[in-house]
Amino acid sequence: xxxxxxxxxxxxxxxxxxxxxxxxxxxxxxxxxxxxxxxxxxxxxxxxxxxxxxxxxxxxxxxxxxxxxxxxxxxxxxxxxxxxxxxxxxxxxxxxxxxxxxxxxxxxxxxxxxxxxxxxxxxxxxxxxxxxxxxxxxxxxxxxxxxxxxxxxxxxxxxxxxxxxxxxxxxxxxxxxxxxxxxxxxxxxxxxxxxxxxxxxxxxxxxxxxxxxxxxxxxxxxxxxxxxxxxxxxxxxxxxxxxxxxxxxxxxxxxxxxxxxxxxxxxxx
Length: 269
Hints:
Oligomer: single chain
Mean pLDDT: 82
Number of strands: 6
Helix content: 25-40%
Low-confidence stretches: 1-27
Distance between the termini: 30 Å
CATH topology of the largest domain: Rossmann fold
CATH class of the largest domain: Alpha Beta
């Protein structure tokens, strides 16, 4: 299997976009024109919405009231919600006994209740605008942390090519593309899933760890040597998938791996 071309071909050249007021005004102008022709819609219920800034994609008022809260006190290591005064430099109750190849995880919300429903919708092709909106919220709430990582490249957790043939979308791609725009760094596939099998969500914690072993490998053409990588996915539970991906990237020569996900789960999902 050869390396995939980015779904957004311009993402490879984001660094070359001129940083000027003229460019910003021009881009914003075109967005305003497009929004006049295609009014912004709520990514969840698809109803047209009215906002003061129509370039910002957001939920309608009703869906916003039902939206899950973002994590307020995340573990510094695994991204799970912890108490306000819990010290997590060495991890929390959910991760302190685990050994990870990646450095740190950041997440938007806990995978429970309404958040669980939203993440499942993000796997559908007609809800990729929802995935984009949730990623924007992740960025808005964790921008300072993600910027401090100084990542050079964004890498999505891949889907097996056989499964991808029958899927019109992959949430990790949408997340990677959205964060690429915000960080102004490229994203590309640097990993491949070596075999198709039982999905992680159907397995127990122990089975997840066993199933993930040697499940991912670097692509032959992947160029990550010396790069700081931001690995992205929709959900992180035991961390076994992210851990195997991080090991593969480190073996390919990258300097360090950090992880960003939409939701953090702490039990079998």
